[in-house]
Here is the input.
Amino acid sequence: MGRAAIAALFLAMTVIGINGQGNAVGQNAAAREPRIAGHPNFNGLWQAVTEANWDILAHGARPGPPQFGALFSEPAGVGIVEGNEIPYQPWAAEKQKENFKNRWTADPEAKCYMPGVPRATYMPLPFQIIQGDKQILIAYPFASASRIIHMSDVGESPADAWMGWSRAKWEGDTLVVNVTNQIEDTWFDRAGNFHSEQLNVVERYTPASENVIQYEATMTDPKVFTRPWKISLPLYRRLEKNAQFLDFKCVPFSEELIYGHLRKK
Amino acid sequence: MKLTHIAAIAALVLGMTAPAARAHHSFSAEFDVNKPIKLQGTVKRVQWINPHTWIWIDVKKPDGTTEEWGVEAGTPNTLFRLGLTREALPVGTEIVVSGYEARDGAKRANGRDMTFPDGRKLLMGSSVGNDAQSK
Amino acid sequence: MRPAALATLLVLALASLQAQTPAVKAAATGATKTPWGDPDLQGTWSNQTLTPLERPAQFKDKSVLTEAEAAAYEKQLVAAGDVDNRTPGTVQDVNLAYNQVWWDRGNKIVADRRTSLIVEPPDGRIPPLTPAAQKRREEDRKASDNEKSAASWLDFDVYSRCIIRSALPRLSTGYNNNYEIVQSPGYVAIMQEQMHETRLIPLGNQPHLTSTVRQWLGDSRGHWDVNTLVVETTNFTDEARGSTFQYATKNMTLVERFTRTSDRTIDYQFTVSDPDTWTRPWTVKMPWNRIDGLIYEYACHEGNLGLEHMLSAARAAETKSK
Here is the structure.
C-alpha cells in the first residue's frame, strides 16, 4: 500500500473518530467532558468502596446470620466517621444498642425500604448521577430510590419523604446539597445507627480527579445527637466498558419477612 | 345548535363508561361492602404517606369513652400539587367520615366521604381545581 | 483502482454514512437544544388524558370528533369520572375508595380530539389477542376476583405489591401521572412519579443486555432520529401478576418516540409488538403536557398497609368460616 493510501486510510479513521461522537463512543467521551454548563461534570456510574454499610464506625469482622456459615459475615472496616464517634445523646446511645441487637429484622434495608441520605451513597451498589444543565437526578438501584436535586428555588417540602427533599447550590466546584424532610425510619447502616425526623444532612460533592468524587456529609439532629458530625469517603467511577445501572427492585425479596405471618397456613 | 346535532352528540356519548382507573389496591378486598359505617371524631394524627394517607381519629362512643379509628384515603401527592401541606388537616379538627369497615375486624375504615360536621367537604379549601396543573 | 483512490472513496463513503447519524442530523434543525446539542426534552410532564386507549363502540368508524362533540364528550367523561356521584352499598362503591379530591384523572381529551389513543390499527382498537394471550387475560381476571381469599402476597399484582406501577409503556391512570426528564450527554433519564424509579436510557448503539437478564422495566436503548428520541426496550419479565403490558409475554418489544412539539408539549408515541400476544403490532399516540407543579416521592412499599390489611382480611375470613 502506497504512502498516499495509508494517509487516506488514516484520514478515514479520523473521520470515523470525529463523527462517531454522534454515537455511543462519542457520547461516552462527551460524558467525560470536564465541565457541563460551567460546572464540574459528575455524570456517570459511581460507587463507594467501603464497608460502611455494615457499620459507619470502625469495626472488626463479625459473624453474619449463623445459618449461612461464613456467607454474609461482616468484613472489618476503618469507618467513615470523622473522629470515629457519633455524638449520641445518652438515650439515643441506648437505642442504637437495641437496634444493633435486632438488626437482622429491624434494619429498614431488610424490608427493602428506601435507604435515605447519606446511606444510599455508600450501599454496596453503583448509583448513577444524571447531571443536566437544569436539574440533577440521582438514581440508586436499591429499592429504586431516586432523588431529584433541585437546583432552583422550590421552597419547603410539603411532607417528609424517604429520600428527603434535596436543594442544592454550587460553591465553586463543589455541589452542596441540603437534604431536609427525611422520614425518621431510615438507618445509617446495618449496625443500627439512626436519626430522627429532625435530621438535616448537608452533602458536599467535590471533584478529586476524573474518576473520583470526594463525598462529605454533615449530620445535624438536635433530637438525637449532641453536635453535628461528619462522614467523608471517595466515590469511584465504574470503568468497565459494559458498566450499566441495573435494577435492584428488592420488594419481592422482602415480602416473606414483612408479610410471612399472614400467609395461608 | 340544531337539534339534530344535539341528538348526534347524545348518541355519541350514550353507553359511555367512566375512564378506567383504580386505587392502588382493591379496597373491596380490604373493606366490607356489607359494613357501611359513619364516624364522627377529632383528628388525632395524619400520616401523609404513600400509597395512601391515613387519618387517625378519636371517636366518642355513647358510653363516653373514646375509640381510635384509622381512615384510609388517597395519595397525598395530588393534594401537595394543589398547594396543600400537612398543615391542611390539623390535629383536633372535627370530621365526619362515611365509609366501610375493615374486613379483618380492626377499627379501620375507608374515607369514602369525608366532611366537616357542617357538610363542607374536607381538603377542598383550595380554589385550584384538580386540573389546574395540566394546561 | 489505485489503493489511494480506493481509500479516498472509503473516506467519502464513511463520511457520508456518518453524516446520517442522528446527532448530526439533529444539529441541523432549529429546535431547542441542550448545551451539548441534543434536542431538549427536560422538564416535568404529565401523560394524563381522558381519551380512552381504545375507541369506544359508540363512535363506530369515527376517528376524530368535531369541536362540539368533543366538548360534550369531555363533559360527559368528567361527570362519569366524578366518584362523588356514586351508588352506596355496591362493591364498585367500595373500590372507588375515597372521594374525588384525591383523584386526578384530568378533564381533557387529547387536543386533536381523537376518539382513541390508538392510531394503529386505524380502527383504534387493540388487535385481536392470540388464544394464548386470551388465556392469560382470563387467568388474570380470575386472580383478580380471588384477591379476597389470597393465600399470600403472590396472589396480588405488581401495583398492589408496590413493585412497579405497571409495565411499560405507561398509560394515563387515576393520579400521579407525572414524569421528570433530565438529560446529560449520552443519557436521557425519565423519573416516574409512580413508583419513584428512574428509567435510565443510554443513547447510542450499545447492544441490549443478554436475554437472561430480565428487568421489571426492561432494558432501554435510545437514539435521536432528527429531533425525536427513539427508545427501544426489551428484556421484560413475567415473574409476577401484571409484570407485562396488557397480557403480553416477556418477549414484547416496545419502541417509544418522544418529540418536543412545543414549549408545553411532547408528542409521545409507542408501538408494541409481540406475535405471541397480538396478531399485529399496534401504536398509541398521546401527549405529555408540561405541568407547573413538582413531582413528589411516591413511596409505596414502605407504607403498604393495604396489602397487609387485605391479607389479614383473608385470614380473618378463614377463621370465621371454620
About this structure: The helical segments of chain A are 3-19, 24-31, 90-101, 103-106, 119-122, 251-259. The radius of gyration of chain A is 22 Å. The CA atoms of residues 174 and 206 of chain A lie 5 Å apart.
